[in-house]
Amino acid sequence: MPTINGNGLRDRARAIPEAAVARLAVYLRVLSGMREQGVASVSSEELSGAAGVNSAKLRKDLSYIGSYGTRGVGYEVEVLVDQIERVLGLTREQSVAVVGIGNLGHALANYGGFPGRGFPVTALFDVDPDLMGVPVGGIPVDHIDDIPKVCAAREVTIGVIATPPPAAQAVCDRLVQAGVECILNFAPVVLQVPETVEVRKVDLAVELQILSFHVARRADHAPDADATPAQRVNGNAPNGVVVRR
Ligand SMILES: NC(=O)c1ccc[n+]([C@@H]2O[C@H](COP(=O)([O-])OP(=O)(O)OC[C@H]3O[C@@H](n4cnc5c(N)ncnc54)[C@H](O)[C@@H]3O)[C@@H](O)[C@H]2O)c1
């Protein structure tokens, strides 16, 4: 199985489309589970089925990182995990700070799934006096004035913003001034950052709208397009006639 490393890997990583990067992260999650179960090799069909993408797309995605598999054997799980981790920059842990410890911040801080994926939450910040020093998920909440000191001491590389929208830009500026170069923003605002800083925005409402679009489009193309979803599930058209499939 051809592999690439060093500069070659970094050059290739720069050329990978954003959507493929997101799928590589999904393959990594699936492959890590397989590795835990002692699976040594996996076919592209098995991996694509488990990841929920078609196998042609999977092979194309893996070709971006120079992994083509072996006919009749497939991909070596251990090797593929290592390659994807290196392309995604996961060879060292990324320490995460969450700012805004309200409903969302509490959920993120208490979620136990991040450390195992290489993203331990190590710092929490808020402005609410009642929260200062209170442990959430085992980590005491600090005031945002302490962002520079705490982020430096805990080597924070990723800042998660879970504040109300009006506070998000100022919080982002503080994180950037503290040397944090990756921001995951949950607040529904567009953040201004220097070119050296990467921002990803999470908006569940947008995801729901995309789902809604797909459902609506599928319904438009269905033979019983005028039926309600319940009628389609039951096989009944609006006029009470049973639809045959
Ligand atoms: N992206 C999504 O899908 C999604 C989903 C839910 C919520 N949100 C967004 O996440 C944010 C948080 O939502 P929530 O329900 O947890 O709100 P919340 O009101 O429960 O919590 C907000 C927290 O931020 C703190 N805060 C306020 N100003 C601050 C500042 N300047 N610095 C640091 N902390 C500050 C508050 O004290 C509070 O603890 C909102 O912007 C909301 O719109 C996004």
TrEMBL record:
<feature type="domain" description="CoA-binding">
    <location>
        <begin position="89"/>
        <end position="190"/>
    </location>
</feature>
<feature type="DNA-binding region" description="H-T-H motif">
    <location>
        <begin position="26"/>
        <end position="65"/>
    </location>
</feature>
<feature type="binding site">
    <location>
        <begin position="100"/>
        <end position="105"/>
    </location>
    <ligand>
        <name>NAD(+)</name>
    </ligand>
</feature>
<comment type="function">
    <text>Modulates transcription in response to changes in cellular NADH/NAD(+) redox state.</text>
</comment>
<keyword id="KW-0805">Transcription regulation</keyword>
<keyword id="KW-0238">DNA-binding</keyword>
<dbReference type="InterPro" id="IPR036388">
    <property type="entry name" value="WH-like_DNA-bd_sf"/>
</dbReference>
<dbReference type="Pfam" id="PF06971">
    <property type="entry name" value="Put_DNA-bind_N"/>
</dbReference>
<dbReference type="InterPro" id="IPR036390">
    <property type="entry name" value="WH_DNA-bd_sf"/>
</dbReference>
<protein>
    <recommendedName>
        <fullName>Redox-sensing transcriptional repressor Rex</fullName>
    </recommendedName>
</protein>
<dbReference type="Pfam" id="PF02629">
    <property type="entry name" value="CoA_binding"/>
</dbReference>
<dbReference type="InterPro" id="IPR003781">
    <property type="entry name" value="CoA-bd"/>
</dbReference>
<dbReference type="InterPro" id="IPR022876">
    <property type="entry name" value="Tscrpt_rep_Rex"/>
</dbReference>
<dbReference type="InterPro" id="IPR036291">
    <property type="entry name" value="NAD(P)-bd_dom_sf"/>
</dbReference>
<keyword id="KW-0963">Cytoplasm</keyword>
<keyword id="KW-0804">Transcription</keyword>
<feature type="region of interest" description="Disordered">
    <location>
        <begin position="222"/>
        <end position="245"/>
    </location>
</feature>
<dbReference type="InterPro" id="IPR009718">
    <property type="entry name" value="Rex_DNA-bd_C_dom"/>
</dbReference>
<comment type="subunit">
    <text>Homodimer.</text>
</comment>
<keyword id="KW-0678">Repressor</keyword>
<keyword id="KW-0520">NAD</keyword>
<comment type="similarity">
    <text>Belongs to the transcriptional regulatory Rex family.</text>
</comment>
<dbReference type="InterPro" id="IPR058236">
    <property type="entry name" value="Rex_actinobacterial-type"/>
</dbReference>
